[in-house]
Amino acid sequence: MAPNRGARHRVLVLGGGLSGTLAAAALAPHGGSVVIVERHTLPQTPKPRRGLPQARHAHMLWSGGADAIESLLPGTLEMLLHAGAHRISIPNGMISLSPGGWYRRCWPEAQYLISAGRDLVDWAVRSQALARPGVHLLSAAEPVRLLGTRARITGAVVRHRDGVEEALEADLVIDATGRSSRAPQWLAELGIPAVPETVVDAGVTYASRRYKAPVDTAGWPVINVQADARLPMAGTAGTILPIEGGEWMVSLSGTRGGEPTSDETQFAAFARRLRSPLIAEYLARAEPRGPVTIARNTANRRRHYEKARLNGFIALGDSSTALNPLYGHGMSAAAQGALALRDLCTGGNIAAKGFARRAQHAIARPAAAAWLLALGQDAAFPHAVGKKPGFADRLAAGYINRLITTACSDFTVVEALTDVMTLQARATVLAHPQVLLAAIRGPRLPPLGGPALTPAEEAVLLGRPAPTRPATAPPLGGPEWGEVSR
After folding, report:
1. Cβ-based neighbours of 239, under 8 Å, separated by 6 or more
2. Residue 140 near residue 40 (C-beta atoms within 8 A)
3. What is the pTM of this model?
């Protein structure tokens, strides 16, 4: 469908990935025409697409991001679940080894996450966004530079597949081209001062592989062995996510000096060297589906566009704040940024002077929360490059570590940490008097000797038929339910 050139306002969204399509959904009710410019041809089904190598790795859509997507595009979560995604309760739907020990699984639901392959998530959001009136997709068109002056961005030049360049005028340009965004260069070409940038890189390398699960993945938990930044060694971690198609997406990671490789014969061996061999034990019961894929571009990079004085231009998602995928916040932070953009548009004029600056500030708030969570861990790893933790950072890290240890046996702390981790609450909730009192009191029970497993989860490890009881059914016993010494 051709763009409506007679529209009241025209918006250009550069990049047709998750951030770009969510931005289009946010602006569709307020811009007469929203044109998504994408350099590749996007699939019409949940299939891999060019330009998204991170889709081959594990992604978690935390409840803060899922709720934001549902607000922008009602019906998307139902669409995902119908297509095979899983809604997983937190904390009971996670078998998780934190730096403070194994989490118990006897609590009521605090939050949730959506577990699915990235291709499925992108397809659902894209399908919903493109169905909005006024949203149009311009495929096989690569943005090559911005139009305008130092005073205002007025559009972009795109290069079509045949090499022909076209100038597209717009009242507002959204950069959603991701980590590889060339916007800083394009802005410099217009004489706009460089945007301040902060980088913290723990040197994380990811190795991921799909497996045919040995059990029905409906009701199956996330299995997560976290790194411990307090240890004087490289941080290694691993995750098993149940996804669509009866598969597990397995991602292993290591910081600088402890990276995994693409060697298929070493994948399970690396998993066995984590702080617990639990993931390796489950992989021994599963069937590999495809090769091991590697990702190394995982640095935390924040371009502080909120400090710039730009008109007619907004950066969203990884273009402004790219996060280490280890914490799974990229999709959720982008979704909350798009939601903030939509809320600011209500009753406002997107072409008005100063709108873009206000929008960039609104987008920066949820991104900053995810940024602080990532930096609190990554800056502490050995050989991390970038901003070093100061006294206040170390003091805050000590408090967080106390909370993490206490959370292994205290629901007040579990709930607060979960609300922050899922981006449903700001970090200030961790200073609530009840949380402070719990931290002072410390763990109320001795640490678990191993993961809390249901009979179905234990049966898989033992090679037995799984009981009919759902894997995440609430326990009938006390806080030691499901404890297995390993």
Report:
1. 58, 222, 223, 224, 225, 250, 251, 279
2. yes
3. 0.92
Looking at CATH, the fold of the domain delimited by 10-59+119-199+300-374 is given as FAD/NAD(P)-binding domain (3.50.50)
Contact at 8 Å (CB) between 482 and 105?
Answer: yes
Q: Is the dihedral of CA 395, 399, 400, 401 positive or negative?
A: positive
Q: Where are the alpha helices (DSSP H) in 312-410?
A: 330-345, 355-378, 391-407
**Residues 292/264, Cβ–Cβ less than 8 Å:** yes
CA–CA separation, 193 vs 286, rounded Å?
A: 53
**Per the structure block, which two tokens stand in for 323?**
């996060």
In sequence order, what are the residues at sequence separation of 6 or more whose Cβ sits closer than 8 angstroms to the Cβ of residue 226? 96, 97, 98, 99, 237, 275
**How far is the C-alpha of 235 from the C-alpha of 445, rounded, in Å?**
27
pLDDT tens digits, residue range 124-136?
999 999 999 999 9
- Rounded to whole angstroms, the Cα distance separating 324 from 380 reads 14
21 dihedral zone (left: phi>0; alpha: psi -120 to 50; beta) = alpha
Concatenated DSSP letters of 169-197: E-SEEEE---TT--HHHHHHHTTPPPPPE
Indicate the pLDDT class of residue 466, thresholds 50, 70 and 90. low
Amino acid code (one letter) for 57:
H
Instruction: Over range 17-25, report the average pLDDT.
Output: 97
* pLDDT at residue 479 tops 60: no
Which sequence spans correspond to the domains of the chain? Answer: 10-59+119-199+300-374
Strands 10-14 and 172-175: parallel
If one counts every other C-beta atom within 10 angstroms of the C-beta of residue 405, the result is 19
Which residues does residue 152 pair with via DSSP β-bridges, in sequence order? none
For 278, how many CA atoms within 13 A lie in the half-sphere containing its CB?
26
CA–CA separation, 31 and 37 (whole Å): 16
Q: Is residue 229 helix, strand or coil?
A: coil
Residue 61: φ, ψ to 5°: -100, 100
